Amino acid sequence: MGYAYDFAHGFMNDQQRTIVRSVIARITHGAISFGMELPTHWRNWNWMNCSNCFMLLALAIEGEEGYDPRIYQRSVEVMQDYLTYGISSMGSSTEAVGYTAFGWVWGVPAMIAMARRGDHLFSHTHFAKYKTWLLHTMQPYGEEWISHGDGGNGGPGPHFMQMLKYYYPQDPDIDYLWEHAMLEHGIDHRKQRMHLVEAILCAEDGGGLDSKRSQQQLTFFDPERGSMITRDCWSEEAVMLQFECRTDTLTPSHEHADRGNFSFTALGVKWVGEASSSVETKYHSCVLIDGKGQGYFPTPGRWLGHVDNENVTLGICDSKYAYDWFWPKTIAATSSPDDPHFTHERWRSFKEEAIKFQHIYGDLSKEPDSSNHVAAHFQGYTDRDPRYWDEDGWPVRVQHNPVQYAYRTAALVRGPQPYVVIVDDIRKDDQERLYEWTMMTGMDIDVFNIRHEEIYLYSRSKSGSVPQAGDPMLLVRVLELGLPDKARDFGAKPAIRLEMFEKKDTFNDTHSLYKKDGGRSYGLDCRLIIPSRSVEPNFKVLLIPHTYGDTLPEIRYDHDCALAILKWHDHEDRLSFKKESDGRSSVDIHRDGHSLLVK
User: Fold this and answer.
1) Closest Cα to residue 100, out of 41, 160, 140?
2) How far is the CA of 50 from the CAs of 4, 109, 486, in angstroms?
3) Three-state secondary structure of 303-346
4) From CA 574, how far away is CA 587, in angstroms rounded?
5) In whole angstroms, what is the distance from residue 154 CA to residue 144 CA?
6) Closest by alpha carbon to 330, among 368, 362, 298?
7) Residue 73: band (very low, low, confident or very high) from pLDDT cuts 50, 70, 90
8) Rounded to a whole number, what is the largest CA-CA distance in the chain?
9) Across all residues in the chain, what is the average pLDDT?
10) What are phi and psi of 231, to 5 degrees?
11) Which of 291, 265, 262 is nearest to 423 (CA)?
12) Cβ(54)–Cβ(30) under 8 Å?
């Protein structure tokens, strides 16, 4: 076989060759940089994969005047570093699945070119685990992926799967992923405008939608990323919970202000999803305080605990730091408007941002972020002030929305009728405030009924205007909800509701500074709001998937004992909650007298 730019080489005219030689010369003499001057562990973002375009340009004139073999050699090193630091040891990317696919536009032909020259980076242990992450982030019903961050509703892309199918023709997991990626969102991508290079070099077909993947664990947990994906079984009807609190954040990036965010699928319906590029907390399944969420660009959260056994998969995270602080663009927060950098074209646009920053945040103190993992990443490399994109160095933190604490516990409980429990222990201060527990449902989900603390949801695409017997449903059962301190203020308690709204950025299109008229609009969306006007909301919520006509469990909640009892005809679950000294509620789950949290 050939590779991408061996193919392109034969179709370039003299003018195009001259342009390529000019670019290569500028790279060789340092006029164009793509991270090579940075310490090895800095080169850990998706744009490193995009930088492979330089290597491909170089190979287009390989063996001719102007070719410099060092560009190829350094590109192999950069790709090795990308696979080491851009993909975790468990196989997770630093980016969402869809945005990672963007980087592979250049990474795919680069990997092929390297393999042809004997640099087989397919054997990298992190890359070998990458397919496992793709299998777990794919929705149970297939043809769709959910992950968190920019591109969170996108899949791995046909260009990437063409390469994998070529190099792993007998791998059942690759065959399975190939089939679903080619039909992502119900569109046959083989009939769309595909990348010509991969289609020609790796002209492969899968084995049909009846392809069988290998046996996978029910839970994928990546402590390096702070990400938990779990399900009750591997079937199209599976109950799937994805719960994430990124702990590895190092700089302003494509992550969203969503520490503790979750997505949820059951019975072939995506009840809670993820958007492509809406970065703010109010567009995620988190908690708002007087309408305000976590800071953006987001700071890291903390992962506190994880339990995984045949009965329960549970995770606990702490998002306090993400409410307390935000990270502005470093160049805007650390430069005065008369900084000489801003006379150069590359940085000119940031002068206006520096002026805006001083106008909006000038009265707030800012300081280098003191998180241990941030300091460990930057210490020893600051003499030359290296920066991502030349914009972001050691991040500075600015106060955003200080809280006393903000914990979330999320668990999938397996059994004859699996369900999810989500507990939020969040408190800003000692004043009554409006806390809103948000769940992003998307436009397909509608309300069938709301009765006190019971919200019944259904899917319009599955049921039409009214659900019928056997149609998928979701019961959202609120166990506990904080109330105003004085009974005479109960009338100020807002109503539980499913609301439709325009999803429009509060932020500028590219940077983190506010615009009066907002930024990009992503059209209409829907979210379930469970509000509490209280000093502390004590949100405790169950998600119980079922079909219309099913007999649901009898559910009782004792506020004094903080005990929930779910009684079915053949078993009984007891969920007890104990408030610890730090404000977090510990959770214990018993079934018929036996603890489900003990292996």
Assistant:
1) 160
2) 15, 11, 58
3) EEEEEECCCEEEEEEECHHHHHEECCCHHHHHCCCCCHHHHCHH
4) 10
5) 7
6) 368
7) very high
8) 84
9) 88
10) -150, 170
11) 262
12) no
Provide the CA 227 distance to its chain's centre, in angstroms: 9
Question: Residue 536: which residues within 8 A CB-CB, separation 6 or more?
Answer: 425, 426, 427, 482
| 3-class SS string, 172-229 | HHHHHHHHHHHCHHHCCHHHCCCCHHHHHHCCCCCCCCCCCCCCCCCEEEECCCCEEE
3-state DSSP helix/strand/coil % of the chain, to nearest 5 = 30, 30, 45
Candidates 109, 112, 106, 35; CA nearest to 77 is: 35
The Cα 290–Cα 356 span in angstroms is 25
Which letter does DSSP use for residue 552 in this model?
P
Q: How far is CA 525 from the centre of its chain?
A: 18
Please confirm whether the linkage preceding 577 is cis (ω < 30° from 0).
no
Residue 499 burial class via C-beta count within 10 angstroms: exposed 0-12, middle 13-18, buried 19 and up: exposed
Letter for the amino acid at 409?
T
Contact 529, 499 (CB under 8 A): yes
Distances (CA, A) of 286 to 125, 422, 528: 34, 11, 11
Q: How many helices (H) and strands (E) does the chain have?
A: 15, 25
Taking the CB of residue 442, how many other CB atoms lie within 10 A of it?
16
C-alpha separations of 10 from 5, 62, 597 in Å: 9, 12, 63
Query: Which of 250, 375, 246 is CA-nearest to residue 301?
Result: 246
Q: Which pLDDT tens digit goes with each residue over 197-253?
A: 777 888 777 666 567 888 899 999 999 999 999 999 999 999 999 999 999 999 888
pLDDT 10s digits, 521-572: 889 999 999 999 999 999 999 999 999 999 999 999 999 999 999 999 999 9
Q: How far is CA 203 from CA 1, 134, 163, 196, 198, in A?
A: 11, 22, 9, 10, 7
- Tell me the two tokens of residue 484: 């105003």
**H helical segments located in 446-554:** 460-463
Q: Angle formed by the axes of helices 14-28 and 69-81, to 10°?
A: 70
Look at residue 269 and give its three-state secondary structure: strand
Highest mean pLDDT among 20-29, 54-63, 260-269, 503-512: 260-269
- Predicted model pTM: 0.91
- Taken as a whole, the chain contains a residue count of 599
Burial 187-223 (b: 16+ CB within 10 A, else e): eebeeeeebebbeebbebebeeeebebeeeebbbbbe
The residues, ordered by sequence, that sit 6+ positions from 520 with a Cβ below 8 Å of its Cβ are: 277, 504, 505, 509
In this structure, what token pair is assigned to residue 245? 């609190």
